[in-house]
Fold this sequence. Notes:
single chain, 143 residues, mainly alpha, 7 helices, globular
Amino acid sequence: MKNCMLENLKSIMILLRSDIRNRRGKELVHLCHQAFQNQMSNGEMCEKMIEMMPTWQGWLNCGETPDWFVQEDVAAFINMALEVMEETLHAGEFEMAYDLADLLHVVPDVIAKNDKASVKRYWKVFVVKFHQKWNCNIFHKFY
Length: 143
């Protein structure tokens, strides 16, 4: 996974969280999801996002950077969270979408720290609380 993709995940989630009811939110999450599934490059994703949201230009890293090792289960978690976020935005469940953006914006920092203590703390602070609040266990298979 490209380092710039992880940087952009953090920025995109922060931007979406600040305007979770944005009418383009679902499209923006869909573009991010496509990029994380390798259906488009980081540069292509950025170009399309900036067309929709010109004010985001300064927030996105549109270059292509070297790959950064991301464990397969972490990549699967990111993809699942993006998919669920798309669904919640489509359904107008903005509070849950906000919580998903909050949960996702921290993932790049956890990956960068690359230690078990950070992962364990992340799950406890973000994922477990998400499951409790929404009375679900959609990410249970990842821990």
